Amino acid sequence: MALHSPRRHDLAGLPSHHTDPIRHPEDAPSAVRTKRAFTLLALTVLVPGSAQLVAGSRRLGRRALMVTLSVWAVAAVVLVVGLTNRGAVLTIFTHPVISFVLIVLLLALALGWAILFLNTLRLIRVPLLARRMRALLVVALVAAMVATSGSLAYAAYLIGVGRGAIGTIFSGGPAISPVDGRYNFMVMGGDAGADRVGRRPDSLSIISVDAATGRTALISIPRNLQNAQFSEGSPMRKIYPDGYNCGDECLINAINTEVNEKYRDLYPGVDDPGAQATLEAASGTLGITVQAYVVVDMAGFQQLIDAMGGIRIKAGGWVPISGASVDNSGTHEPPIGWIAPGEQKLDGFHALWYGRSREFASDYDRIARQQCIQQAMINQLNPATLLSKFQDIAGAGTKVVESNISADQLGSFVDLALKGKSQPTSRLVIGPPDFDASFPTYPDFDAIHAKVADVIKSATGSSSDSPSPKATGAGGPAGLGAPGPLPAALASSVSSGVPAGPYNDIGPDGVKVTAQRLDYLFRTGQNELLDEIMAGNGECTPL
Fold it and tell me: How many Å apart are CA 196 and CA 256, to the nearest integer?
């Protein structure tokens, strides 16, 4: 007679496996099956792999749980490092190689998590649930899978979009080192309109950033500066040893086009010789070493503003949207519209015109308006806007911006920008109000060097260990840092809630100023009155 091992029973006389509803739900009450199903789903959401460990393949569960714990450990390390070295964490997302590895890992985790959800669905054994609970459970599982695995996949997609934009905009060249404790970047607003040969900068600024604290100085160079000095070692110094001095045509904004047309062979291996030569002219003129450049194509600028959803400013005076050019003297057809004083939300088209409009304004008014737009973009590009419109912003950026900044260093520079955003910005304009209006034609480079040294000194260290700098530029804030003190006229208008400008809504002739009134004055040639009404239209505050 064959011997059989006795079958284990519980105290009620049932086989022992019937007392384990997690692994054997078939004999469990309906309420227990429902609770089991949603418990396994919650375990897969909160601790991927734990559902398999308690109700399915323990081997799969242990492997998945090991991955889960490893990811948590890495995330904890990244969090700790981020608290002490934010630039290192930002580099994960901006470095071309590291970001690619991150994309692969995120996609692998997303796929693995999705597989665990499907395996959990099998373990739940949906047919054992009450009929009314089946659809609810499936909907909850799909929602959980989209929220978790789908989010990882979408994050990988966004990093991929950003990686592509970074690769298009920034170079793969060598890293740069700070000079005298600072990074100096040239930002050039390039105008490559259909009526122009080459690209001539309408705006030229140097952003000087303290390499330790991010404290920023913004130095604006007028486009009509003459006799610009090329730095020592510049190939163009051999062509113009005494400065860029061929007459009225040799303005600093003409260097870009001239070098790209005539002297490209002096810059072998350089992607944009014109921008590099302009950088060298800015270095020699200001008496500092400018290490890198960023070129913003003003013709495509409006795409970036539109991608952000517009920008908000407080305009200080009426700004015309010019009509077509009549001739080369600067005469235009009547304006096709006007940007009014006061609080405005500008789309790309109007923001572009607000920064570029020349009629009834000086170059320094334009510099101030451009600075105001730059600061508005920085202030309003918050994480919510960036995440919700990231693809559009990144796509527009590839059409608008080019730079010779190394992509490998981008993370550390973003970190510096974040540090500087909470600190005041020092400003200097190489022209009014910091110099006489004729100064750009007959520049005194010793005086320029002295003022540049002073403004950089005021932006050295952090705001807690040095006195707050006095704002020295015309118009509104700009650059990477927080706004400095406003001009008195603008500060009073902001505090009173009244639009800035010398006459507000009443003109010097006592008549209310409206767009229709301005159109009439333009058609009837009353330019002196228009000049008075629009005096100071460079006043602007980003909101």
Answer: 13
